[in-house]
């Protein structure tokens, strides 16, 4: 499943590598790689594979969610498809409280004490999904976990979730992507080693 999804991301050209012009991530990290999971919205078969992979993750979870929460913005559509597939209620979580109207950070109904699974598209440092999980907790929700399509596998992310007492699970990630690219001859062993070293020095 992990390898298949990495291949799906490559097929829809969600992944760009540019060693000459680095991308800036939301955390400020400069990166030679960018994975645009937003493109999955435009590919019904791929987004269905993602929904089914999330369903498999949920099936393995001891604590079953009662509400699915999408992280704004890229997590929202996947949360909606998963909530629909599981016939569960859904909310979404803004990156910060709305500056007008009701001033909500969490939109939708979130009764206190309900078990909530937070859905994110991608985890780099884990900062965005942790913020969303904390907002859910402030509203009285019980966060049963964070699940994402893709992780860069940074130790930093493991640490922040561990410290917050949150389980996180992912469908695919950087290692699977590099394997697929090497198998396809798009990267040679030296490029792969360089990218792994680059990732590892981020921690
Ligand atoms: O683990 P982190 O270091 O927080 O990085 C991952 C976050 O960055 C991206 O969002 P972005 O801020 O680009 O916003 P978007 O979802 O609205 O596109 C991505 O969709 C995650 O939410
Ligand atoms: O960390 C990020 O901001 C980030 C990295 C990435 O590869 N893709 C993305 O959408 N965001």
UniProtKB/TrEMBL annotation:
One MF term in the entry's GO annotations: orotate phosphoribosyltransferase activity
Protein keywords: Glycosyltransferase, Magnesium, Pyrimidine biosynthesis, Transferase
Catalytic activity annotation: orotidine 5'-phosphate + diphosphate = orotate + 5-phospho-alpha-D-ribose 1-diphosphate
Cofactor: Mg(2+)
Record: residues binding 5-phospho-alpha-D-ribose 1-diphosphate: 94, 98, 100, 120-128
Pathway: Pyrimidine metabolism; UMP biosynthesis via de novo pathway; UMP from orotate: step 1/2
Enzyme Commission designation: 2.4.2.10
InterPro entries in UniProt: OPRT (IPR023031), Or_phspho_trans_dom (IPR004467), PRTase-like (IPR029057), PRTase_dom (IPR000836)
Residue ranges occupied by any Phosphoribosyltransferase domain in the UniProt entry: 43-150
Role this protein plays: Catalyzes the transfer of a ribosyl phosphate group from 5-phosphoribose 1-diphosphate to orotate, leading to the formation of orotidine monophosphate (OMP).
Protein name, as recorded: Orotate phosphoribosyltransferase
């Amino acid at each position: 499943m992990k390898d298949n999804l990495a291949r799906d991301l490559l097929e829809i050209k969600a992944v760009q590598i540019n060693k000459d012009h680095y991308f800036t991530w939301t955390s400020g990290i400069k990166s030679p790689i960018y994975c645009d999971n937003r493109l999955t919205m435009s590919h019904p078969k791929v987004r269905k594979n993602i929904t089914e992979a999330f369903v498999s993750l949920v099936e393995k979870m001891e604590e079953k969610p009662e509400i699915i929460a999408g992280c704004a913005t890229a997590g929202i559509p996947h949360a909606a498809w998963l909530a629909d597939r599981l016939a569960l209620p859904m909310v979404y979580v803004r990156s910060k409280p709305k500056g007008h109207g009701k001033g909500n950070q969490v939109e939708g109904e979130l009764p206190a004490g309900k078990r909530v699974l937070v859905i994110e598209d991608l985890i780099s440092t884990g900062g965005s999904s942790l913020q969303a999980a904390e907002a859910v907790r402030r509203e009285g929700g019980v966060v049963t976990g964070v699940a994402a399509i893709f992780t860069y596998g940074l130790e930093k992310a493991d640490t922040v979730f561990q410290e917050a007492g949150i389980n996180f699970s992912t469908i695919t990630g950087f290692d699977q992507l590099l394997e697929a690219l090497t198998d396809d001859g798009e990267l040679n062993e030296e490029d792969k080693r360089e990218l792994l070293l680059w990732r590892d020095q981020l921690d």
